[in-house]
Design the sequence.
């Protein structure tokens, strides 16, 4: 579900985990690659996402906390950069920690998604458990979507929260797809489900109002969904997904406005 490649300025750009940082390399032909440039995030994580629009690139990640508890908080980061024709990125300021979320199932953060809206807005999303009381109790699991218009000095504002398909289990992978007019479509699938879910932000609210639309596409159950589907949109705002089915084959589906 996470984007780590794109092409811009006559180059292919690939982002990767180096073991101690997040890095990137570029190529003009797909065969000969530059050396790896690290971004200086100071964190070893594979759970990051990248998007770009024109000369702007954005990156988001959660700090992995290997020995925390399910109630521990982990910081959520966003960073914006400017692509250069020479294959370098001019990162703007320092990584911006805009929120803290609780760790998910087995105390590990779920993958994040980041997107640049067609109106120039910035979007990030992930799943995380909520809080509950009195203890001991099982906290609910939520999908969290944040938006920043690029102007508000307070940064990201949470614009969407809804329950995962399995209401007390955070393992629902999601991806945010930018649509025309500044709208977005959030596409997700829970590890314990064979279905895909999607919901649109229209600028004034979420549709369907009652919750995401659902389509059973026979995804494998009890497999991490962040590795099993990829989504892109066309000029008509239909979202096309390619995925691995429960039978080990490639599948294809089109998701339109709910």
Sequence:
């Amino acid at each position: 579900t996470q984007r780590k490649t794109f092409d811009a300025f006559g180059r292919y750009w690939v982002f990767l985990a180096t073991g101690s940082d997040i890095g990137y390399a570029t190529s003009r032909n797909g065969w000969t690659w530059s050396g790896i440039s690290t971004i200086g995030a100071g964190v070893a994580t594979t759970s990051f996402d990248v998007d770009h629009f024109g000369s702007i690139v954005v990156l988001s990640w959660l700090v992995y906390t290997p020995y925390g508890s399910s109630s521990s908080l982990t910081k959520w980061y966003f960073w914006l950069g400017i692509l250069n024709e020479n294959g370098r990125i001019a990162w703007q300021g320092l990584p911006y920690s805009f929120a803290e979320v609780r760790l998910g199932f087995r105390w590990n953060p779920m993958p994040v998604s980041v997107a640049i809206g067609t109106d120039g807005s910035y979007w990030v999303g992930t799943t995380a458990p909520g809080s509950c009381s009195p203890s001991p109790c099982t906290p609910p699991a939520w999908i969290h979507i944040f938006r920043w218009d690029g102007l508000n000095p307070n940064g990201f504002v949470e614009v969407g929260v809804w329950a995962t398909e399995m209401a007390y289990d955070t393992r629902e992978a999601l991806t945010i797809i930018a649509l025309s007019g500044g709208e977005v479509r959030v596409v997700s699938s829970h590890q314990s489900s064979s279905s895909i879910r999607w919901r649109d932000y229209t600028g004034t609210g979420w549709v369907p109002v009652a919750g995401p639309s659902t389509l059973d596409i026979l995804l494998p159950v009890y497999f991490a969904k962040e590795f099993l589907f990829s989504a892109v949109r066309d000029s008509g705002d239909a979202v096309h997904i390619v995925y691995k089915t429960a039978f080990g084959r490639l599948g294809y589906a089109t998701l339109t406005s709910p």
